[in-house]
Protein backbone atom coordinates (compact mmCIF):
# COMPACT_ATOMS: atom_id res chain seq x y z
CA UNK A 1 0.00 0.00 0.00
CA UNK A 2 1.30 3.43 -0.91
CA UNK A 3 1.89 6.06 1.75
CA UNK A 4 -0.62 8.42 0.17
CA UNK A 5 -3.32 5.79 0.60
CA UNK A 6 -2.30 5.22 4.23
CA UNK A 7 -2.45 8.92 5.05
CA UNK A 8 -5.72 9.41 3.18
CA UNK A 9 -7.42 6.58 5.06
CA UNK A 10 -6.20 7.20 8.63
CA UNK A 11 -6.56 10.13 11.01
CA UNK A 12 -3.37 9.20 12.88
CA UNK A 13 -0.43 7.33 11.37
CA UNK A 14 2.13 5.45 13.48
CA UNK A 15 5.45 4.55 11.88
CA UNK A 16 8.94 3.44 12.88
CA UNK A 17 12.46 3.76 11.50
CA UNK A 18 15.08 1.03 11.78
CA UNK A 19 18.54 0.60 10.29
CA UNK A 20 20.18 -2.53 8.83
CA UNK A 21 22.64 -3.94 11.39
CA UNK A 22 26.26 -3.98 10.24
CA UNK A 23 27.15 -7.27 11.92
CA UNK A 24 25.90 -10.39 10.20
CA UNK A 25 24.75 -12.03 13.42
CA UNK A 26 22.66 -8.98 14.27
CA UNK A 27 21.20 -9.04 10.76
CA UNK A 28 20.39 -12.72 11.17
CA UNK A 29 18.54 -11.84 14.37
CA UNK A 30 16.64 -8.85 12.94
CA UNK A 31 13.45 -10.91 13.27
CA UNK A 32 13.57 -10.51 17.05
CA UNK A 33 13.31 -6.74 16.52
CA UNK A 34 10.76 -6.92 13.72
CA UNK A 35 8.47 -9.27 15.61
CA UNK A 36 8.09 -6.77 18.45
CA UNK A 37 7.78 -3.74 16.19
CA UNK A 38 5.25 -5.29 13.83
CA UNK A 39 3.21 -6.58 16.75
CA UNK A 40 2.71 -2.92 17.67
CA UNK A 41 0.76 -2.52 14.41
CA UNK A 42 2.62 0.38 12.80
CA UNK A 43 1.24 1.66 9.51
CA UNK A 44 4.72 1.36 8.01
CA UNK A 45 8.38 0.89 8.88
CA UNK A 46 11.17 2.75 7.09
CA UNK A 47 14.61 1.23 6.64
CA UNK A 48 17.73 3.36 6.25
CA UNK A 49 20.16 3.10 3.35
CA UNK A 50 23.95 2.83 3.39
CA UNK A 51 26.40 5.33 1.99
CA UNK A 52 28.06 4.85 -1.39
CA UNK A 53 29.22 1.29 -1.95
CA UNK A 54 27.86 0.08 1.37
CA UNK A 55 26.64 -3.49 1.62
CA UNK A 56 23.81 -2.07 3.74
CA UNK A 57 22.05 -1.09 0.53
CA UNK A 58 21.16 -4.68 -0.31
CA UNK A 59 20.32 -5.26 3.36
CA UNK A 60 17.83 -2.41 3.13
CA UNK A 61 16.01 -4.09 0.28
CA UNK A 62 16.11 -7.51 1.96
CA UNK A 63 14.75 -6.13 5.25
CA UNK A 64 12.00 -4.18 3.49
CA UNK A 65 11.01 -7.31 1.64
CA UNK A 66 10.91 -9.26 4.91
CA UNK A 67 8.77 -6.59 6.60
CA UNK A 68 6.25 -6.83 3.77
CA UNK A 69 6.26 -10.55 3.04
CA UNK A 70 6.75 -12.09 6.48
CA UNK A 71 5.19 -9.50 8.76
CA UNK A 72 2.57 -8.04 6.41
CA UNK A 73 3.52 -4.48 7.30
CA UNK A 74 4.20 -1.76 4.77
CA UNK A 75 7.86 -0.86 4.24
CA UNK A 76 9.53 2.34 3.09
CA UNK A 77 13.06 2.06 1.71
CA UNK A 78 15.39 5.00 2.15
CA UNK A 79 17.23 5.90 -1.05
CA UNK A 80 20.17 8.30 -0.98
CA UNK A 81 21.68 9.87 -4.08
CA UNK A 82 24.77 11.99 -3.41
CA UNK A 83 27.22 9.12 -3.94
CA UNK A 84 25.49 7.57 -6.96
CA UNK A 85 25.10 8.19 -10.67
CA UNK A 86 22.00 7.68 -12.82
CA UNK A 87 22.86 4.10 -13.73
CA UNK A 88 23.23 3.15 -10.06
CA UNK A 89 19.96 4.85 -9.11
CA UNK A 90 18.24 3.03 -11.97
CA UNK A 91 19.57 -0.28 -10.66
CA UNK A 92 18.49 0.42 -7.08
CA UNK A 93 15.06 1.42 -8.37
CA UNK A 94 14.79 -1.80 -10.36
CA UNK A 95 15.74 -3.91 -7.34
CA UNK A 96 13.23 -2.11 -5.14
CA UNK A 97 10.49 -2.48 -7.71
CA UNK A 98 11.28 -6.16 -8.27
CA UNK A 99 10.97 -6.70 -4.50
CA UNK A 100 7.47 -5.22 -4.58
CA UNK A 101 8.43 -2.12 -2.59
CA UNK A 102 6.08 0.74 -3.41
CA UNK A 103 7.39 3.49 -1.14
CA UNK A 104 10.75 5.21 -0.88
CA UNK A 105 12.15 8.05 1.21
CA UNK A 106 14.29 10.09 -1.17
CA UNK A 107 17.32 11.65 0.52
CA UNK A 108 20.51 13.41 -0.48
CA UNK A 109 22.48 11.46 2.10
CA UNK A 110 25.20 12.63 4.45
CA UNK A 111 28.48 13.92 3.10
CA UNK A 112 30.97 11.09 3.55
CA UNK A 113 34.69 11.53 2.77
CA UNK A 114 34.93 7.78 2.21
CA UNK A 115 32.19 7.90 -0.42
CA UNK A 116 32.65 11.08 -2.47
CA UNK A 117 29.84 12.68 -4.41
CA UNK A 118 29.37 11.63 -8.03
CA UNK A 119 28.24 15.18 -8.79
CA UNK A 120 25.02 14.02 -10.46
CA UNK A 121 22.43 14.31 -7.69
CA UNK A 122 23.37 17.15 -5.38
CA UNK A 123 20.01 17.45 -3.64
CA UNK A 124 17.10 15.19 -2.79
CA UNK A 125 14.95 17.23 -5.18
CA UNK A 126 17.31 16.18 -8.01
CA UNK A 127 16.71 12.53 -7.15
CA UNK A 128 12.95 13.00 -6.92
CA UNK A 129 12.83 14.82 -10.26
CA UNK A 130 14.78 11.99 -11.87
CA UNK A 131 12.83 9.02 -10.56
CA UNK A 132 9.33 10.54 -10.51
CA UNK A 133 8.66 10.11 -14.26
CA UNK A 134 10.58 6.82 -14.45
CA UNK A 135 8.96 4.87 -11.60
CA UNK A 136 5.65 4.27 -9.87
CA UNK A 137 6.99 4.71 -6.32
CA UNK A 138 5.20 6.81 -3.78
CA UNK A 139 7.99 9.21 -2.80
CA UNK A 140 8.44 10.66 0.67
CA UNK A 141 10.91 13.41 1.49
CA UNK A 142 12.66 14.65 4.60
CA UNK A 143 12.14 18.01 6.27
CA UNK A 144 13.95 19.86 9.02
CA UNK A 145 11.94 21.74 11.68
CA UNK A 146 15.04 23.67 12.72
CA UNK A 147 16.25 24.06 9.11
CA UNK A 148 18.71 21.86 7.26
CA UNK A 149 22.28 22.53 8.44
CA UNK A 150 23.11 23.83 4.94
CA UNK A 151 20.19 26.28 4.78
CA UNK A 152 20.92 29.98 5.08
CA UNK A 153 17.59 30.79 6.73
CA UNK A 154 13.94 29.75 6.93
CA UNK A 155 13.11 31.37 3.61
CA UNK A 156 15.72 29.34 1.72
CA UNK A 157 14.58 26.26 3.65
CA UNK A 158 11.03 26.72 2.42
CA UNK A 159 12.13 27.44 -1.15
CA UNK A 160 14.10 24.21 -1.25
CA UNK A 161 11.37 22.22 0.46
CA UNK A 162 8.86 23.51 -2.08
CA UNK A 163 11.20 22.33 -4.85
CA UNK A 164 11.19 18.87 -3.28
CA UNK A 165 7.40 18.74 -3.12
CA UNK A 166 6.93 20.22 -6.61
CA UNK A 167 9.32 17.54 -7.90
CA UNK A 168 7.02 14.82 -6.56
CA UNK A 169 7.42 14.28 -2.81
CA UNK A 170 3.98 13.26 -1.54
CA UNK A 171 4.71 12.93 2.19
CA UNK A 172 7.27 14.65 4.42
CA UNK A 173 8.92 13.03 7.44
CA UNK A 174 10.69 15.38 9.82
CA UNK A 175 14.14 15.16 11.29
CA UNK A 176 14.27 14.74 15.06
CA UNK A 177 13.56 17.72 17.31
CA UNK A 178 13.04 18.19 21.03
CA UNK A 179 10.97 21.37 21.18
CA UNK A 180 7.49 20.95 19.71
CA UNK A 181 7.14 24.68 19.15
CA UNK A 182 9.88 24.39 16.52
CA UNK A 183 7.80 21.81 14.66
CA UNK A 184 4.56 23.81 14.93
CA UNK A 185 6.30 26.92 13.61
CA UNK A 186 7.84 24.93 10.76
CA UNK A 187 4.50 23.46 9.67
CA UNK A 188 2.89 26.90 9.75
CA UNK A 189 5.63 28.29 7.51
CA UNK A 190 5.33 25.31 5.15
CA UNK A 191 1.59 25.83 4.75
CA UNK A 192 2.14 29.53 4.06
CA UNK A 193 4.65 28.46 1.38
CA UNK A 194 1.93 26.38 -0.27
CA UNK A 195 3.21 22.99 0.88
CA UNK A 196 0.07 20.94 1.53
CA UNK A 197 1.36 17.35 1.75
CA UNK A 198 1.27 15.49 5.11
CA UNK A 199 4.12 16.52 7.42
CA UNK A 200 4.79 13.89 10.06
CA UNK A 201 6.93 14.71 13.11
CA UNK A 202 9.93 12.48 13.80
CA UNK A 203 10.61 11.66 17.44
CA UNK A 204 13.79 10.10 18.80
CA UNK A 205 13.69 8.96 22.44
CA UNK A 206 16.83 9.72 24.43
CA UNK A 207 18.17 6.26 25.21
CA UNK A 208 21.83 7.24 25.29
CA UNK A 209 23.35 10.64 26.00
CA UNK A 210 26.21 9.87 23.62
CA UNK A 211 23.84 8.99 20.77
CA UNK A 212 21.70 12.09 21.26
CA UNK A 213 24.73 14.39 21.37
CA UNK A 214 26.04 12.84 18.15
CA UNK A 215 22.68 13.19 16.40
CA UNK A 216 22.26 16.78 17.55
CA UNK A 217 25.71 17.62 16.18
CA UNK A 218 24.86 15.95 12.87
CA UNK A 219 21.43 17.46 12.25
CA UNK A 220 21.71 20.74 14.15
CA UNK A 221 18.79 20.19 16.53
CA UNK A 222 18.87 22.21 19.73
CA UNK A 223 18.35 20.86 23.21
CA UNK A 224 15.75 22.72 25.28
CA UNK A 225 16.65 23.45 28.90
CA UNK A 226 14.12 20.88 30.12
CA UNK A 227 15.82 18.23 28.00
CA UNK A 228 19.32 19.32 29.02
CA UNK A 229 18.39 18.88 32.66
CA UNK A 230 17.41 15.27 31.99
CA UNK A 231 20.75 14.51 30.36
CA UNK A 232 22.76 16.36 32.99
CA UNK A 233 20.95 14.59 35.82
CA UNK A 234 20.86 11.05 34.44
CA UNK A 235 23.73 10.82 31.94
CA UNK A 236 25.66 8.41 34.17
CA UNK A 237 22.61 6.35 35.13
CA UNK A 238 21.67 4.30 32.08
CA UNK A 239 18.39 2.95 33.41
CA UNK A 240 17.21 6.31 34.74
CA UNK A 241 18.10 8.05 31.46
CA UNK A 242 16.20 5.36 29.55
CA UNK A 243 13.07 5.95 31.63
CA UNK A 244 13.35 9.74 31.60
CA UNK A 245 14.08 9.81 27.87
CA UNK A 246 11.01 7.71 27.10
CA UNK A 247 8.83 9.91 29.29
CA UNK A 248 10.06 13.00 27.46
CA UNK A 249 9.33 11.40 24.07
CA UNK A 250 5.85 10.37 25.20
CA UNK A 251 5.12 13.90 26.41
CA UNK A 252 6.19 15.25 23.01
CA UNK A 253 3.94 12.79 21.19
CA UNK A 254 0.91 13.54 23.36
CA UNK A 255 1.34 17.27 22.72
CA UNK A 256 1.82 16.75 18.97
CA UNK A 257 -1.26 14.58 18.58
CA UNK A 258 -3.36 16.88 20.77
CA UNK A 259 -2.34 19.73 18.44
CA UNK A 260 -3.71 17.81 15.45
CA UNK A 261 -0.62 16.25 13.88
CA UNK A 262 -1.38 13.45 11.43
CA UNK A 263 0.73 10.93 13.32
CA UNK A 264 4.24 10.31 14.54
CA UNK A 265 7.37 8.68 13.11
CA UNK A 266 9.50 7.10 15.85
CA UNK A 267 13.25 6.68 15.39
CA UNK A 268 13.57 3.37 17.24
CA UNK A 269 17.37 3.01 17.01
CA UNK A 270 16.57 -0.72 16.62
CA UNK A 271 15.42 -0.83 20.23
CA UNK A 272 12.07 -2.65 20.24
CA UNK A 273 11.72 -2.39 24.03
CA UNK A 274 11.74 1.41 23.80
CA UNK A 275 9.23 1.39 20.95
CA UNK A 276 6.93 -0.89 22.91
CA UNK A 277 7.12 1.27 26.04
CA UNK A 278 6.22 4.35 24.00
CA UNK A 279 3.36 2.63 22.17
CA UNK A 280 1.95 1.21 25.39
CA UNK A 281 1.84 4.77 26.75
CA UNK A 282 0.08 6.25 23.70
CA UNK A 283 -2.10 3.27 22.76
CA UNK A 284 -5.34 5.25 23.00
CA UNK A 285 -3.90 8.43 21.54
CA UNK A 286 -2.45 7.46 18.15
Secondary structure topology:
Layout: H1 3-9, E1 13-18, H2 24-28, H3 30-39, E2 44-47, H4 56-69, E3 74-80, H5 86-98, E4 103-107, H6 124-131, E5 138-143, H7 154-167, E6 171-176, H8 180-192, E7 199-203, H9 209-219, H10 225-234, H11 238-258, E8 263-267, H12 272-281
Parallel strand pairs: 1-2, 1-8, 2-3, 3-4, 4-5, 5-6, 6-7, 7-8
Please outline what is shown here.
This protein is of the alpha/beta class and 286 residues long. 48% of the residues lie in helices and 15% in strands.
Structure description:
The protein has 286 residues and is α/β, with parallel strands linked by helices. The protein is 48% helix and 15% strand. It has an 8-stranded parallel barrel with strand order 1-2-3-4-5-6-7-8, surrounded by 5 helices. The relative contact order is 0.13.
